[in-house]
Every structure is written in C-alpha cells, then in structure tokens.
Amino acid sequence: MTTSLFDIAPGLATYLLVLVAVLGACMGSFMNCLAWRLVGGQSVLSGRSYCPRCKEQLTAVDLIPIVSWVALRGRCRHCKKRIPVRYVLVEIVMAAVFVAIVLVYGFTVQALAYGVLACILCGVTLVDADTYTIPNGFILAGIATWALTVWFMGVPPQGFWPGSDFATQFGDGFLPVLIDGIAGGLLLGGGILAFSLLFEQVTKRESLGGGDVKLLFVTGLFLGAPLGLFGLLLACFVGIIIAFVLRLSGGLPGSDVLNESDGGPGEPESLKTRAIPFGPAIAVATVLTLLIGSPCMTWYVGLFM
C-alpha cells in the first residue's frame, strides 16, 4: 500500500516527515481561519487575518503554526487577550494526522487524497461544533477530491482496504475501489437517511441532520462498504464519548471562540438546547478508520478463521 518510507535513508525519512508535519500544522492553521470566517459570515477568499478582540491585523510573526502561540504564551501580541487553546490544538492534531497518514500510506495518491479529506473533516468539526451545521461546500469538496483521485488508486494484496471485496472480480486496479466507494457512499448515506426518516416518523423527533447524512455519504466514498460500516460503528462510540465529555464540561469546545464581545456572531439561543453535533464524531472516526481500520478488521476476522 505504501511507497515504503522505511526503505528511505533514516535522515531523509526524518526530514520528509518533518516537512509533512509542518504542512499539516499549516493546514490546521488555515482550517482554523476558514472555519472562523464561515461561522462569522465573512469572506474566506479575501481580507487579512486579525485579532477578533482588538481588530489589529496579524503579521507573519503572529501566524506561525504552533510556534507563534507558544512564543506569545497564548495571548494576542497587541491586546494581550487570551487566544483560545483550540487553535494550537488543531494545528498539533493536524500535524500528527498528516504524519500518521504518510506512515501508513507512504507518498501515494491515497495519502494525498486522505490528507485533503482530513482537512475537510477538520473544517467540518470546527464549524459543526460552533453552529450545528455542515456547509455544503465541505461536502462538495469531499466528493470532488474522491472523484479526482479514485482513478489513481489500487487495492493492496493483503488486508481490508477500499476495493478489497471486489478485487477478485475486477482486479487490483482502480475499478474495485470505485465500485466499493459508490457502494459505501450509498450504504452509509442512503442507509442512515432511511433509518433517520423512519426514526423521525415513529418518534416524531428529529434525529440526524441532513449535513450528517451527506457527510456519511462522503466518508463512505473514501472508505468503501466494509470499512465504512466499521467507521460508522466507531463514530457512534466516539459520539458517546464526546457527549459525555461535553455534558461534564458544560458546553461545546470552542464556544468561547466567537461571541458578542469578540466581534463574532455569538451563539444563537436555539443552539443551547439542541443535541450534541455528530459531525465531529464522524470526522474523528473516519480518520481513525483510515489509519487503523484495516488491521482492526483483519484481527477481528482472524478470530473466526
């Protein structure tokens, strides 16, 4: 599956992994900015970054991922107000995710596609946590990424990977990955949509939002049917953990990032009584499935064979 990073000289491999980590941190910083602007109803294509409290424009010194937050001790260089820890945590997590993807998939088209997907899922997590919505732009970006890269993917000889169930009939090229992706998207997106509609019909209560259903369709495209089901089950467990943590902490992560005093849109009253957003759980579970889903399923199936 990989263009083995371990076949490269250790010094070069370390250098490449550092570059990948820096890229991941930079993308985390970008997704922080993108999500903040989407939540605040601002343009994501124009305008300089600025402190939401004092309105001072930020320079390169303020925008170095991780380093700037640490050097400034988590405070704005101008007004000395605290910068939410969420920003640096996102940068660290994205750096780690990028490195993990390269370690699992090497420098391949899969790694590129999954890195883009990780960025999309990061944006989904941040926006959904603050607004309980998943913008269609993220969904379209995910579909476009899969559609552009699936033609260059293949099925590895061993393990449970996207396309593995169809490799016997269609070979180890892109075709089984394409078929499995479509099957996974329809199974997760269509299946959950049908279940959600039935649940609402019986209980007269709202279940999953449309954004969650569309996000599951996108993750199904990337994971395929078997891994997609594993990811859905994992998302339920992650969702329970997130709900438990948030109930204990008394709020959503990042709820202090935008409020009236910050010059942001504030938190609508209706959000305080709504259910825990499921988008972050889907995002976390999808990334974990990409990284550990195949060995976990291989281990599980091995128990019965």
Automatic annotation (TrEMBL):
<keyword id="KW-1003">Cell membrane</keyword>
<dbReference type="Pfam" id="PF06750">
    <property type="entry name" value="A24_N_bact"/>
</dbReference>
<feature type="transmembrane region" description="Helical">
    <location>
        <begin position="136"/>
        <end position="154"/>
    </location>
</feature>
<dbReference type="Pfam" id="PF01478">
    <property type="entry name" value="Peptidase_A24"/>
</dbReference>
<protein>
    <submittedName>
        <fullName>Type 4 prepilin-like proteins leader peptide-processing enzyme</fullName>
    </submittedName>
</protein>
<feature type="transmembrane region" description="Helical">
    <location>
        <begin position="85"/>
        <end position="105"/>
    </location>
</feature>
<dbReference type="InterPro" id="IPR000045">
    <property type="entry name" value="Prepilin_IV_endopep_pep"/>
</dbReference>
<feature type="transmembrane region" description="Helical">
    <location>
        <begin position="220"/>
        <end position="246"/>
    </location>
</feature>
<feature type="domain" description="Prepilin type IV endopeptidase peptidase">
    <location>
        <begin position="116"/>
        <end position="243"/>
    </location>
</feature>
<feature type="transmembrane region" description="Helical">
    <location>
        <begin position="278"/>
        <end position="301"/>
    </location>
</feature>
<comment type="similarity">
    <text>Belongs to the peptidase A24 family.</text>
</comment>
<dbReference type="InterPro" id="IPR050882">
    <property type="entry name" value="Prepilin_peptidase/N-MTase"/>
</dbReference>
<keyword id="KW-0812">Transmembrane</keyword>
<feature type="transmembrane region" description="Helical">
    <location>
        <begin position="12"/>
        <end position="39"/>
    </location>
</feature>
<feature type="transmembrane region" description="Helical">
    <location>
        <begin position="111"/>
        <end position="129"/>
    </location>
</feature>
<feature type="transmembrane region" description="Helical">
    <location>
        <begin position="174"/>
        <end position="199"/>
    </location>
</feature>
<feature type="domain" description="Prepilin peptidase A24 N-terminal">
    <location>
        <begin position="22"/>
        <end position="103"/>
    </location>
</feature>
<keyword id="KW-0472">Membrane</keyword>
<dbReference type="InterPro" id="IPR010627">
    <property type="entry name" value="Prepilin_pept_A24_N"/>
</dbReference>
<keyword id="KW-1133">Transmembrane helix</keyword>
